[in-house]
Design the sequence.
């Protein structure tokens, strides 16, 4: 028996009304069957009613209609979602660039066989092959090369080759594919679109090896070196692959490059930066340690007459400075420099570093080329804590 509370539920009442055969109601068998199926789909079980006279109540029918309407709305929404998720209902791509960007190999094949040019470029001027190589779409790169894409195609931008894009992103399989198709491992970039972390303004001339070193892609670097990449090539900024690896802190790559003959004390032509000064400026402690152990000259000076210790002092790299001092770095201003490590630390407000330098014998009264002491520089820059430190000495 159904209890009284359940008996009074309007959906139950409506179900009993609609599903119970009654000679007083003119409902043909086909309609009865459809109503039964609809109610069952809505989760209303078949029920038998002994007395259906009160089941013609308009309020009951209104509520039942509302329930069924909601169910139909949900069904319609579900069908809409199914349609949107079905690839067959999606609009067909007509843009080669869009297809390449999405890695849609099938569409690319279709459009190329219909006569579209493999030499099309994106709005930004990138070649189709570069788009594929940058994103790591190996199969797509294969298709484009099979359709006679230029392995050296730099697009309208004329910046990076596909090999540079692949090396920068670390896609070893694509790097191998491009080299197999004759890509130049020593090609150089021809404008300033760089992923390379560099202290100064980006210049031209980066090679695939430099991109691989900057990105820390060990396998890519090893493969390029095995296939003739020049370990001592330099860009227009004067940076070698070792400098790029040092600047990014990739110790394993620095080891590989030195084994391949990279010069540890090679410096850039314009700014006179070395692998060690770049590593010190960026604060890469383990890289600095490795380079010192490998024989790097820590008293080499940049174009600003900065030693490695001075480069570390500029950005407050305390542990790097400590390592350099422990390795014999000169704590006071060299005779041909314009400022001391302490002055640079004071300018930057690096209190902990200043304390270390003072502990190691830094001269707090030493003046720079403008005649300012570290205290004057700290006051000029508004570093109150630094001022208190220096006044207390």
Sequence:
């Amino acid at each position: 028996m159904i209890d009284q509370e359940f008996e009074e539920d309007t959906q139950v009442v409506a179900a009993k009304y609609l599903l119970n055969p009654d000679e007083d109601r003119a409902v043909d068998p086909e309609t009865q069957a459809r109503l039964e199926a609809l109610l069952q789909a809505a989760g209303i079980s078949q029920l038998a009613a002994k007395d259906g006279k009160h089941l013609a109540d308009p309020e009951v029918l209104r509520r039942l209609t509302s329930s069924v309407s909601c169910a139909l709305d949900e069904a319609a929404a579900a069908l809409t979602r199914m349609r949107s998720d079905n690839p067959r209902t999606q609009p067909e791509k007509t843009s080669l660039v869009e297809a390449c960007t999405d890695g849609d190999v099938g569409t690319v094949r279709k459009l190329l066989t219909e006569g579209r040019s493999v030499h099309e470029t994106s709005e930004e001027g990138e070649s189709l092959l570069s788009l594929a190589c940058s994103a790591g779409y190996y199969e797509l790169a294969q298709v484009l090369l099979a359709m006679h894409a230029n392995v050296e195609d730099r697009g309208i931008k004329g910046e990076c080759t596909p090999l540079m894009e692949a090396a920068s992103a670390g896609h070893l399989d694509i790097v191998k594919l491009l080299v197999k198709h004759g890509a130049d491992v020593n090609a150089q970039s021809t404008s300033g679109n760089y992923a390379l972390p560099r202290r100064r303004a980006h210049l031209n001339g980066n090679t695939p090896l430099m991109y691989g070193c900057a990105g820390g892609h060990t396998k890519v670097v090893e493969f390029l070196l095995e296939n003739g990449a020049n370990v001592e090539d330099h860009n227009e900024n004067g940076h070698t692959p070792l400098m790029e690896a040092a600047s990014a802190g990739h110790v394993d790559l620095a080891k590989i490059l030195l084994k391949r003959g990279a010069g540890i004390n090679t410096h850039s032509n314009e700014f006179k930066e070395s692998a060690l000064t770049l590593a010190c400026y960026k604060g890469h402690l383990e890289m600095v340690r490795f380079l010192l152990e490998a024989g790097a000259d820590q008293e080499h000076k940049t174009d600003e007459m900065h030693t490695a210790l001075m480069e570390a002092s500029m950005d407050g790299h305390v542990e790097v400075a400590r390592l350099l001092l422990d390795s014999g770095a000169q704590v006071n201003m060299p005779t041909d420099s314009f400022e001391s490590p302490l002055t640079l630390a004071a300018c930057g407000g690096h209190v902990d570093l200043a304390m270390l330098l003072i502990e190691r014998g830094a001269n707090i009264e030493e003046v720079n080329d403008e005649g300012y002491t570290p205290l004057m520089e700290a006051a000029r820059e508004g570093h109150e804590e630094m001022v208190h430190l220096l006044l207390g000495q």
About this structure: Residues 1-8, 45-55, 192-203 have pLDDT under 50 and may be disordered. Residues 4-88 form one domain. The CA atoms of residues 222 and 256 lie 8 Å apart.
